[in-house]
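User: Hi! I have a protein structure encoded as tokens and I'd like to know what sequence might fold into it. I'm fairly new to this, so please keep things simple.
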């Protein structure tokens, strides 16, 4: 039996702890904050009218198979812990020319919908793009997404090598989407998938089109009561299996003897011994702060190389959100709504420009769950989210200073104005508004600059996230900033990969 310390109690930390405890290890989770969940947070506001509950992080669940598998592997089925609801439409897209397109759960229904709204040719283009995305999925799923990308994984993937040209190596998501789809509205819908990895569509590899396939083949899902309930369920699973969850317990350093990890040091100076440490916090923080100066010889050199590579990589985009208590019911809205500007390219040029700028007319994402558990009768709970540059208070050229109160209020006014201009006026019906900036995410979860996905997946090399196995023996990395990537399902998949790499406890 090994003593294992998991740093961080977000989705990946809780999933890793559940799997490792189920494998017979003694697991301690050290979480810096007072609650679990990390980026998958929740805000609750009680008013005279009743209680509003908002997901402050994820609002759309994709690839649910990963969670069914996590629960099956560690005990009882997922359905006994949370109630998942398949969304149809998955999202409603509104365009500046007045077109409204739904992303329908059934591909055949989607085809009919697109044919009716945009014509047979555009519907055929979308279907062809989806076929290509499905082929990409066959190429990258399995050993690539579910392995460590080590030479042995790549060898095991040999039967899929002939499929690799399908991912259009060297091409961007935008390049491939534009090749298939002349219609600017379909191009915008495809561009939007780059946001799911915090990156620009013109720089992210074409293989990210698999997100289109994930949505169309496996659906978009909601968790009744809010996505936070999924975190509660994984936390309960970890604790039931015996993991010791320590809240308000920030780790300040990983400690080692030579090239072997021996435990962690807490912010109060306490040392906890461990045979294995799984860090699920931002990979840059793990290497640049917690593991700084560790290792000997070649392993020390490899650690330094990882630090340098992470230091040089561009950071992912961040999110500016407004959580709104809204009186009345809004006609014509879906659970998820995306309001596009007339010109979509400017959003990414602004965020990843030099210097970074706030997008003047970003796409606006509005989530309005039709769920009585999250709002009082007669009200709606809106989560409004736009992509923005990360936070930095010291003048970094790829960031803005989100602690500036004027910026906060001016940008929220701008977004309310844009909502009205795009047909979703809400100002007159506001009960309250909670504003959340990338600086808030940084303060609450230790995410540097609030950059949701760590580094941006720009270019073939940089889109390969830091490995799950570190150069130090006994130090593993999981989470949304390492392989295979960000978002709840991939964060949970990284936990699976790490648990398999560690293996069952020896008795
Ligand atoms: C606004 C927003 C919208 C999103 N939308 C979606 C979506 O719709 N669908 C989707 O799938 N994903 C979405 N995501 C992404 C998703 O939330 C993340 O990829 C995922 O939750 C990452 O989980 P994690 O465990 O890797 O990291 P985190 O959630 O960041 O967890 C890390 C934990 O470590 C703790 N910690 C940090 N430093 C220390 C330390 N030194 N010692 C101890 N503990 C520490 C933190 O407090 C935190 O609890 C969204 C994220 C945001 C912010």
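Assistant: Happy to help. Inverse folding works backwards from shape to sequence: for each of the 507 positions I chose a residue that suits the local structure. Here it is:
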């Amino acid at each position: 039996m090994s003593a294992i310390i998991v740093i961080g109690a977000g989705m990946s930390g809780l999933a890793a702890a559940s799997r490792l405890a189920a494998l017979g290890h003694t697991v301690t989770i050290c979480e810096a904050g007072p609650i679990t969940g990390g980026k998958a947070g929740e805000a609750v506001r009680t008013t005279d009218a009743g209680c509003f509950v908002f997901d402050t992080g994820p609002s759309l669940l994709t690839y649910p198979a990963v969670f069914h598998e996590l629960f099956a592997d560690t005990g009882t089925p997922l359905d006994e812990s949370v109630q998942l609801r398949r969304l149809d439409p998955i999202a409603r897209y509104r365009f500046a020319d007045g077109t409204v397109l739904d992303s329908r759960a059934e591909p055949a229904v989607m085809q009919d919908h697109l044919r009716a709204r945009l014509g047979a040719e555009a519907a055929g283009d979308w279907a062809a793009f989806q076929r290509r995305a499905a082929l990409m999925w066959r190429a990258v799923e399995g050993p690539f997404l579910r392995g460590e990308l080590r030479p042995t994984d790549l060898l095991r993937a040999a039967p899929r090598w002939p499929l690799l040209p399908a991912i259009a190596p060297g091409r961007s998501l935008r390049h491939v989407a534009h090749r298939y789809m002349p219609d600017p509205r379909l191009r915008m819908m495809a561009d939007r998938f780059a946001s799911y990895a915090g990156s620009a569509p013109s720089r992210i590899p074409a293989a990210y089109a698999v997100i289109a396939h994930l949505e169309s083949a496996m659906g978009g899902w909601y968790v009744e009561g809010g996505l936070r309930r999924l975190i509660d369920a994984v936390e309960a699973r970890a604790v039931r299996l015996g993991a010791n969850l320590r809240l308000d317990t920030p780790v300040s350093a990983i400690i080692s003897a030579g090239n072997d990890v021996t435990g962690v040091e807490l912010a109060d100076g306490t040392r906890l011994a461990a045979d294995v440490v799984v860090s699920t916090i931002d990979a840059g923080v793990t290497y640049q702060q917690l593991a700084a100066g560790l290792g000997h010889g070649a392993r020390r050199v490899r650690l330094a190389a990882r630090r340098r590579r992470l230091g040089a990589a561009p950071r992912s985009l961040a999110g500016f959100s407004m959580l709104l208590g809204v009186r009345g019911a809004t006609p014509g809205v879906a659970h998820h709504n995306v309001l596009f500007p007339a010109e979509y390219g400017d959003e990414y040029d602004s965020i990843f420009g030099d210097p970074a700028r706030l997008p003047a007319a970003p796409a606006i994402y509005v989530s309005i769950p039709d769920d009585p558990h999250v709002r009082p009768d007669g009200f709606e709970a809106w989560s409004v989210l736009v992509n923005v540059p990360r936070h930095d208070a010291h003048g970094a050229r790829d960031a803005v200073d989100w602690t500036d109160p004027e910026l906060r209020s001016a940008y929220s006014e701008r977004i309310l104005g844009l909502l009205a201009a795009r047909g979703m006026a809400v100002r007159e019906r506001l009960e309250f508004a909670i504003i959340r900036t990338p600086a808030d995410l940084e303060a609450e979860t230790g995410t540097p600059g609030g950059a949701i996905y760590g580094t941006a997946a720009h270019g073939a090399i940089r889109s390969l996230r830091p490995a799950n196995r570190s150069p130090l023996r006994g130090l593993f990395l999981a989470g949304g900033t390492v392989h295979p990537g960000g978002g709840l399902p991939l964060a949970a998949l990284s936990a699976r990969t790490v648990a398999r790499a560690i293996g069952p406890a020896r008795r």
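A useful reference point when you look it over: The mean pLDDT is 95. Feel free to ask if any position seems puzzling.
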